[in-house]
Amino acid sequence: MIQMGPSSVKWFTAWRRRPWAGYAVVLAALAIIAVAYAGVSSGGDRAQASDTQASAQDIAKGKELFNQTCSSCHGANAQGTRTAPSLIGVGAASVDFQVGTGRMPAMNPGAQIPRKKPVFNEEQTRQIAAYIASLGGGPAVPSSDQVDPKTGDAALGGKLFRANCAQCHNFAGSGGALTGGKYAPPLDKATPTQIYEAMVTGPQAMPVFNDTTITPAQKRAIIAYVTQTRSEVNPGGNGLGRVGPVAEGLAGWLVGIGLMVVAAAWLTARKPKKKHND
Amino acid sequence: MSTTTPPKAIDGAIGFADERFATAGFLRGKMKKVFPDHWSFMLGEIALYSFIILLLSGTFLTLWFKPSMSEVVYHGSYTKLNGVSMSEAYSSTLHISFDVRGGLLMRQIHHWSAILFLGSIMAHMLRVFFTGAYRKPREINWLIGITMFTVAILEGLFGYSLPDDLLSGTGLRITQGVLQSIPIVGSYLYFFAFGGEFPGQDFIPRLYTVHVLLIPGILLALVAAHFMILWFQGHTQFPGKNREEKSVMGKPFYPVFLIKTTAFFVFTFMVVALLGTFAQINPIWLFGPYTPDSITAGSQPDFYMGFLEGALRIMPNWETNLWGHTVSWNVLVPALVPLGLIMTGAAVWPFVEQWATGDRRIHHIADRPRNAPFRTAVGMAAVAFYGLLWLAGGNDVLADKFHISLYQTTWFFRFAVFIGPVIAYIVTKRICLGLQRKDAAEYGHGVESGIIKMLPSGEFIEVHEPVKDDAEAVLASKPAAPALIAGQEEDENGIPSPASRGPLGRARRALNGAFAADDIPIGNGHAAGHGPGEPGAPGDDDGDAVVKHPETEGGEHRELSRG
Predict the structure, then answer these.
(1) DSSP letter assigned to residue B390
(2) Closest residue to A237, CB basis, from B279, B404, B542
(3) Is residue A116 part of a domain?
(4) What pLDDT was estimated at residue B4?
(5) For each successive 10 residues of chain B (563 residues), what is the average pLDDT?
(6) Contact between chains at B286 and A159 (C-beta distance less than 8 A)
(7) Which of A68, A103, A134 is the last residue of a domain?
(8) Total Cβ atoms within 10 A of residue B490
(9) Which of A188, A194, B26, B461 has the highest local Cβ count within 10 Å?
(10) Which residues pair with B336 in a beta bridge?
């Protein structure tokens, strides 16, 4: 140690006297800060995270898939055509939602594209999302922490849901009708990630609820409300589809009045004549 | 004619009462009231029994319900609303649902009974209308029934509004809008009812008093009046063998009908309890508390308000500005016109019919709907009008479940509400006349036996068998069509009589014609050999010893002649 000391100091002193040493130190400090920052803020900034995940290979594969199945409507460069909108800037979240719920690729361009069995698997979806994200900006796929229903306040979510979502999706997320043949789909199948993506991208007739309108914590609350509500057992028996009084009236007439009429008919039925009475 | 007194069990009780109140003669007669054996005569009883269940289950609910708009923060068993601020009315309803033993079941039984109550009233009224059972002497009971129906709708609306959940508040908001739309006094009425701006602190407590005290009291009094009149006048009955105007056949109240109707009460309770156990109704915890900034898809009232909701939904957005005041036709018309048309129409119908046909006789034999084609057709037109409005009230659910465009349903109903009743009128009238023709053919030629005979000449004929006695009596019961009223015909110079001039006279002639038109007479000369059976002494037609008793049968008759 004693012998090595002077020689290593000499070596370090020799290096730091070089003309470019100052620049190297600044660069190293920046790199450390950048890495530290990325580590601290990793949860908040998924755009960077997904960008770093999206390798050039993914993007190339995604572009290939896009050309095969999406470009006929969305255009060769995703610039949009008369039948389908431009996808530049819609972000990976939009792709993940539309492809992940099976809505895209669409089969029949009607008033609204229905949910169906997804055509692409998760990896392919990620690749297409990477390609679309590479075209520029847009919300990225949320991390699992961001959409974790366990960390959401369901009571707050309920309030927000009734004020923002229930007028289309119904009080229990059973869905409802919209104008022009469109509809708000039932929320029974949407995963927490898809609910989040729908809020940030506003698919089809749905408005966008960005992070200013509804903060990420509030979004988690809404996700908690939706997932808890749909898994909640109906304490009063059969939920009758949770669509409100229309189903109740139908059940009241068909089952209630129906059974009573059967009972009345039975009580007043004529019995066959007893022979010994005649 | 073995005995003229009821069995011992009831006679003892009557004797007990008689020694104290001198009521034996009265009670003995009343106990023998006869109830006809037809299922449709039981519909009104569903209403009676569900009303009793409503009173009992409602009393249970009042023990915990707090009719207060004071704001509280919820920390109860339903964790999904933990920390949410709400009215005390809503939180106490949550308390009943989740923390009171049997509370949710009682709430559901109460609500399902309300559905059954209104549903059976409607079914009962349709039966009374289509069989002409509202005719003299029962017009007053018909009016009492319509009053009860209207009051019951209000009672239901108020009950639906009390828990102050999201749907309640939405309904109250519409109620407020309707009050406000009344010209001139609208805003005063609204402020008077709500004690200030909507929703305010006062309306729920006020509704509560009306819901648990005033309206049940009115209903109870009307039910009593309805039954006393019914007991006094007796039931109508369908035409048949040995059925005549002067007596009614069926089971006496004691003991046969008493057992049957008790069983029917148990049935009613069973159906309501089954629904209350297995079918969730009005899940207010899912709706959430009412806040004026929230609304949900599927905001509907209970079914009996559905036709008003439908009218509101399809009404074009029409407003007029008169001298600086807005007349909101878009709210006023749907709130008043359909209700007014149906209720007022039903109320005046017995009197219009008497006036138009000149028939002021007493009727105890019910009409078969086919034999009164004009009435049946008008009734079905009203049913179509009501039914289409009712469907329009659920147009968003229809659009969603059947994948139809919402606006298309609105436009469809806007036209259908006018065209549908006309189609219903025409189709019903044709069906009635077709059935009359079939009746006349059966009466005149018998029924097809399915046996083909070859005559010696080689001709094939189908053997017709005469109609059986019972059926023949039913066919023969067809009343003659109402004749044109005497004194209204034109004289030999083609001059109408003075009574038929003027707008009223012309209206009467037109209505008279409508009642009298298109009649297919029964037994037009072909019926030789098997004419209508002679109305014999009232006798039993199903072998029940109790009914066979002439005393039982004749009781009704005597009471009527006394009245």
Answers:
(1) H
(2) B279
(3) yes
(4) 55
(5) 60 80 78 83 94 96 95 93 94 95 96 97 96 93 96 96 94 93 91 90 93 96 94 85 76 83 94 95 94 90 94 94 89 93 95 89 89 94 96 91 88 96 96 92 87 91 86 84 65 69 81 81 54 39 35 36 29
(6) no
(7) A134
(8) 10
(9) A194
(10) none
Euclidean distance between CA atoms B385 and B380, whole angstroms? 8
The H or E element containing residue B175 is helix B166-181
Contact criterion met (CB below 8 Å) for A96 and A62 = no
Give the pLDDT score at B330. Answer: 93
**Residue A72 marked ligand-binding:** no
Q: Could you tell me if A121 and A195 lie in one domain?
A: no
Helix, strand or coil for residue B309? helix
Read off the tokens for A58.
């993914």
pLDDT confidence bin for A40, thresholds 50/70/90: low
**Given the structure tokens 């039914």, which residue do they identify?**
B387
Cβ distance A167 to B280 less than 8 Å, yes or no, reads no
Is A276 known to sit in a ligand binding site?
no
Q: What pLDDT is attached to residue B276? A: 95
Rounded to the nearest angstrom, the minimum Cα separation between B153 and chain A is 14
β-strand pairing of B34-35 with B251-252 = antiparallel
Which domain covers residue A157, as residue numbers? 149-231
Tokens of A246: 């229309």
Query: Do the beta carbons of residue A231 and residue A189 sit within 8 Å?
Result: no
What's the number of domains chain A is made of?
2
pLDDT at A4: 52
In a domain, A140, yes or no: no
pLDDT of residue B559: 33
d(CA B141, CA B232): 11
**Within-domain flag for A59:** yes
In order of their start, the domains of chain B are: 43-308+324-367 (1.20.810.10), 433-530 (no CATH)
Q: For an interface test with A, give the residue of B74, B280, B302, B544 to mutate (most A CBs within 10 A).
A: B280
pTM of the entire structure? Answer: 0.84
Is there a contact between A228 and B80 if contact means CB atoms under 8 Å apart? Answer: yes
CB-based contacts of B245: which residues, under 8 Å, 6+ apart? B362, B363, B364, B365
Search chain A and give the residue with CA nearest B280. Answer: A236
Average pLDDT for A120-144: 89
State which residue of chain B sits closest to A152, comparing Cα positions. Answer: B80
Percent of chain A with pLDDT over 90: 45
**What is the H or E stretch that residue B455 is in?**
none
* Phi, psi angle pair for B450, to nearest 5°: 80, 5
Could you tell me how far CA B298 lies from the centroid of its own chain?
A: 27
Chains A & B: contacts with CB separation below 8 Å: 219
B245 exposed, middle or buried (CB, 10 Å; 0-12, 13-18, 19+)?
Answer: middle
Helix (H, G, I), strand (E, B) or coil at B320: strand
CATH code of A64's domain? 1.10.760.10
Tell me if A257 and B543 make a contact (CB, 8 A cut-off).
no
A12 in any annotated domain: no
The C-alpha atoms of residue A206 and residue B71 are separated, in whole angstroms, by: 33
**CA angle, corner A75, sides to A65 and A196, nearest 5?**
65
Alpha-carbon Rg for chain B, nearest whole angstrom, is: 28
Query: How distant is the alpha carbon of residue A178 from its chain centre?
Result: 21
Q: Is residue B179 a contact partner of residue B185, using CB atoms and an 8 Å limit?
A: no
Contact (Cβ atoms closer than 8 angstroms) between residue B257 and residue B13: no
Residue B405: what pLDDT?
87
* A92 marked as part of a ligand binding site: no
Which two three-digit tokens encode residue B66? 């707090």
Indicate if A115 and A160 belong to the same structural domain. no
- Domain end: A93, A109, A134, which one? A134
Of the candidates B128, B166, B162, the residue with the CA atom closest to the CA atom of residue B145: B128
CA-to-CA distance for B212 and B129, rounded, in angstroms?
Answer: 31
List, in order, residues 6 or more apart from B275 with CB less than 8 Å away. Answer: A251, A252, A255, A256, B108, B109, B112, B281
Q: Are residues A176 and A123 in the same domain?
A: no
Return the pLDDT at A58: 87
